[in-house]
Amino acid sequence: xxxxxxxxxxxxxxxxxxxxxxxxxxxxxxxxxxxxxxxxxxxxxxxxxxxxxxxxxxxxxxxxxxxxxxxxxxxxxxxxxxxxxxxxxxxxxxxxxxxxxxxxxxxxxxxxxxxxxxxxxxxxxxxxxxxxxxxxxxxxxxxxxxxxxxxxxxxxxxxxxxxxxxxxxxxxxxxxxxxxxxxxxxxxxxxxxxxxxxxxxxxxxxxxxxxxxxxxxxxxxxxxxxxxxxxxxxxxxxxxxxxxxxxxxxxxxxxxxxxxxxxxxxxxxxxxxxxxxxxxxxxxxxxxxxxxxxxxxxxxxxxxxxxxxxxxxxxxxxxxxxxxxxxxxxxxxxxxxxxxxxxxxxxxxxxxxxxxxxxxxxxxxxxxxxxxxxxxx
Length: 377
Fold this sequence. Notes:
Blueprint: E1 16-23, E2 26-33, E3 42-46, H1 53-61, H2 67-72, E4 75-79, H3 99-103, H4 106-113, E5 118-123, H5 125-136, E6 141-147, H6 156-168, H7 171-179, H8 182-187, H9 189-202, H10 205-216, E7 240-246, H11 252-261, E8 267-272, H12 279-282, H13 284-297, E9 310-314, H14 316-320, E10 333-335, E11 338-339, E12 343-345, E13 351-356, H15 358-361, E14 372-375
Parallel strand pairs: 3-4, 3-5, 5-6, 6-7, 7-8, 8-14
Antiparallel strand pairs: 1-2, 2-4, 9-13, 9-14, 10-11, 12-13
Helix pairs in contact: 7-9
């Protein structure tokens, strides 16, 4: 189903509904922007640790280029128990849900709002939760855009380090280290100060710590890459999936590892150059553009006006062998059976492919990209 475009150029002001939805694992705070319709999916968001729907996604959804999406697709923001702005401290008797249990709060949210299917947009812990939801309820998920997903459990050394960090650092410092890379923390003082202020003043510290501990106790995301001629019933994400990470993110290696475990005909890895731990905040216009192409590739927003993006693409194997010289060959399969490759050279000594992402949007059917994409601007 292709959505019709609203040609109105004025700023779109959708209806906003704010509710607490009761689930088996506690109440989750939800904000619905727009009106769900039977023939349209809804973008379902889930935030990272120390954030809520505002601090995680407001920069992205307030971006002028996002208006086109908001006119066509409603947005449902979901916040984990006790993580919304102004939340009271959770009762002592309340056992905070595991990551798997948090994923099982989402069917109740869909039922509450009468939603048939969603396009998931998650960051960090929220990305993990949405991926788990898609694994358990594939019929409810049309697609996933996952930023900073880490599919792996905490190792023993990580667990010890986290315990020491809890003893020696304040909660805001711990969360900042989770969200941002060392370079950002050392050099982007304004951004770090802003998010430290958000965490300190708008979030309930006790509740955030419970969410953080739940995330650090997560299980491995049980996915397996299908192998041609092998078991066709392996557990994997069945929907089109876009993995996004900034090249200065603290979880670059984890995201690359996640890409290696997913179905290459359904998954794209978008590694954003000169970008930090929160791409949707650091470079909202580029994430918006990627989201537009992603949705368009699923058969929506077919007449969306797109700007040209120059992308540098890398194969999964070369990106996983990323080294300091960053000299490697870049290839990208844009559509099934069609590969467009134009070699050129850059000043940094890279051999890569210059591709306009317009070519992705020209198809109204789901495109499969079996290689990873690193965007350069």
